[in-house]
Design a protein that fits this description.
CATH superfamily: Vaccinia Virus protein VP39
CATH architecture: 3-Layer(aba) Sandwich
Strand content: 15-25%
Radius of gyration: 17 Å
Number of domains: 1
Structural class: alpha/beta
Order of helices and strands: EEEHHEHEEHEHEHEE
Number of strands: 10
Number of helices: 6
Largest sheet: 6 strands, mixed
């Protein structure tokens, strides 16, 4: 078994619950679900179809604003952005458009136009999506490839704290959540790609690509 993020060949067993086993990479510290427990695409989409992402939901906008606000503070005016993994309701893309930026969206199920992946962007957002990646190494490399020098990558995902907290963590119970990042994982990724890392709270991460 290889770590799906850094390909280290020596992940160790981390936790077991009623549905699946979890492993942790000794190099990048990623915690990931047993690959044998990954859902087929049809079952995965059935779970996603239950999500209600409504642009008129003020509570959801407040949640997304925890990333949008610090990102907007750092962006010049009229930038080109991509919301990667936008889901069935690209509310964050709408919010950033309302702030004056031009937005493209991509999602393998709900916005599958891959032509948007042939351009480069001043910033990319990926909210509550990175934990769903079956092949995080591939997706991470793609995000960095799409990002212009000096550009920002804004992420939202809940962070692993420790083994005891993980055992009680509701976040792991979603069967479509398969990769669990920690501060150590993002420090590893930032150092490897010479990214400037800011961790804003327990689930908001900003990375800036070097110029």
């Amino acid at each position: 078994m290889l770590c799906p993020l850094c390909l280290n060949p020596h992940p160790s067993h981390y936790h077991q619950d009623k549905r699946r086993h979890y492993f942790q990479c000794p190099e990048c510290q990623l915690v990931f679900a047993d690959p044998a427990a990954l859902l087929p695409q049809s079952a995965e989409k059935q779970v996603y179809d239950q999500h209600q992402n409504n642009p008129d939901d003020h509570g959801y906008r407040r949640f997304l604003n925890r990333l949008a606000e610090p990102l907007l503070e750092r962006l010049p005016l009229q930038q080109q952005g991509l919301d990667f993994g936008c889901g069935p309701g690209p509310v964050l893309a709408l919010m950033l458009q309302e702030a004056g930026h031009q937005m493209a969206t991509f999602d393998p199920y709900y916005a599958p136009d891959r032509s948007v992946l042939r351009r480069s962007y001043d910033f990319i957002t990926c909210t509550e999506a990175i934990e769903h990646f079956y092949q995080p190494r591939r997706e991470w490399q793609l995000l960095l490839q799409l990002l212009k020098p000096g550009g920002y990558l804004g992420l939202m995902t809940k962070l692993v704290r420790n083994r005891d907290a993980f055992a009680q963590w509701h976040y792991k119970n979603d069967p479509t959540h398969v990769c669990f990042f920690s501060e150590a994982t993002f420090r590893y990724l930032a150092e490897r790609s010479q990214l400037r890392l800011e961790i804003l709270g327990n689930d908001v991460i900003l990375l800036q690509k070097p110029t």
